[in-house]
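To whoever picks this up:

The parser on our side crashed when reading a file containing two proteins. I've narrowed it down to the boundary between the first structure block and the second sequence. Both blocks are reproduced below exactly, byte for byte. First block:
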Amino acid sequence: MKIQLVTGEPGTGKTSKLHDLALQWAAQGLAFRAVLQPAVGPRTPGLGAPSYDLLMLELVPGGQLWSRRLEGLATRRPVRGYDFRSEAFEEARAFLTRQPLPACIILDEVGDTEVAGGGHGGALGDLLALDPPGLTLVLGVKASAVEAVRIRLAR
């Protein structure tokens, strides 16, 4: 398995870059699945956006781009952090690990919670355990979690 990281601080365009990559792969006819978390509303430095959606993309047989958007995946708490919809993460995990796996998978917003196996990070652990040959895994990683992700990937 080949693993690539797209890293940066909040609001630097990681999700946009990953979305663009998914659209490029779709245009090339490359089989992929992606789970992205686009921000909804204006971002506050150091806090992020007021909420995030979950966007699942897949190039399905016949070359059609399939998408499903789950709105309100995460909403910011009054103090700090977010409240998440766990059922959306479970759907994302099942989507990402469904067999047969595509050639490429994009997993956005990998942070400390996901490294520990929470959020949609359960899918990350599943994919690492499978270690499918020929899979390219592209991870959007928060700058604050890069070292933890590298340690996790070292297995």
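<<boundary where parser fails>>
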Amino acid sequence: MKKILFLSLMLLLNCFVLFSQNSEYFKGRGYYGYAFNKDYFVFMSIENQKKRYTPTKQDIKLCEEILKSHIDQYLSDLNICTSISRKTLNKYARQYVGFINKDGDIIIWINMLYKRSQTKAELSKRVIFSCDGGDSYWNIYVNITKRYLYKLEINGVA
């Protein structure tokens, strides 16, 4: 009897995990995307990572404000030639993955994907990685605690 109860409980938990939502949809002025919860496995980490974090609506809004207000100066400081700018941010759908570093700062990784390249259903299911596509696919880290951008990665061109 204990074995049957245990197996039933395990089956129920597996169903819960399989059908639980991995991401939450967010939409604001000039952006939309999906934030993945802290339990969703991603094959990445940050330097001095303490743990994963599930971004909130307020985190995403702040993250977008920091991105919009800092991206042009950040790109200028890097001295790179790209079509990415504050004016072009609305052309990208987003995926957000949250972390907390050892200092307790909230770090959000934003995966930027050209809107016409992925459906909303695809964006919600898994974090999408691409090796090619140039600045149609890029990502950046935002420290929302200290309000700065870092570690921009723009994909290569095949």
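After patching the parser it read the second block fine. The chain has three helices and seven strands. The chain has one domain: 21-154.
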